[in-house]
Amino acid sequence: MKHELCAAALKRRLTTRVMGRNLEVHRVLDSTQTRALHLARQSAPEGTLVLAEEQTQGRGRLGRRWHAPPGSSLLMSLVLRPELAPRQALRTSMIVSLAAIEAVARVCGVVALVKWPNDILVEGRKLGGLLSVVSARGERLEYVVVGLGLNVNLDAERLPPLMSPATSLRAETGKYVSRTELLLALLKGIEARYDRMAAGWQPHEEWRRHLATLGQPVRVGTRREEVIEGVAESVDQDGALWVRTEGGDLRRVLAGDVTLRGHPLG
Ligand code: BTN
Fold first, then answer.
1. Does the beta carbon of 117 sit less than 6 angstroms from any atom of ligand 1?
2. What are phi and psi of 163, to 5 degrees?
């Protein structure tokens, strides 16, 4: 395969202290998420990163599959062990999505935004998505595994139909994009924000500035199978969305699947 990811080359060029220092690169894996969860349970150190060129059982949110042609995408899962309470776990995905947005801007000049809570969009088209799995022991997080799938060198016609409307960095720029450069920028951005968070910074203000969802009419399915409709007004420090309903109530939604009313965003 041309331009494949190489563990030795990545390690030589890493500028991070923790993120990606313990690294696995697989040609084929069922899912980087499944592998990273296994490693996290075996006490893998913080910053452990699992990458794959191809996944046979890629996992998406809400039980969906994640499809990506071999060698086309950034498919990764990162083990984090933050000093956070379980209700604050979404802060880790805020950090990863912000770092992803920064990396695609720096490396390719593409402007992306977040669709609450876990999608990365370019002008409404899905460029990628995050999937977090959390393990808690009482009031402390034991680990969070943040999975990220980013469409990099997919041709427009190979974009997964289920993800529609979707896009890739190649489709946006018309150029081949180096996944290595993208990953190095991404890990640097994650670590910078993660260190700041450990020193007391909260990522939600920066995240709020990069949300495509605010001010939009939304329809949110909650975990309790309830559907809330209204206008997305704000997000709070733990990543919950505040929705103003037609009746004027302000409802707090912690996680769900947002569609622009009547227009599923994918
Ligand atoms: C979504 O549904 O939008 C989130 C998709 C997350 C996919 C990534 S690809 C790398 C990692 N491994 C998986 O099996 N899933 C995540």
1. no
2. -95, 5
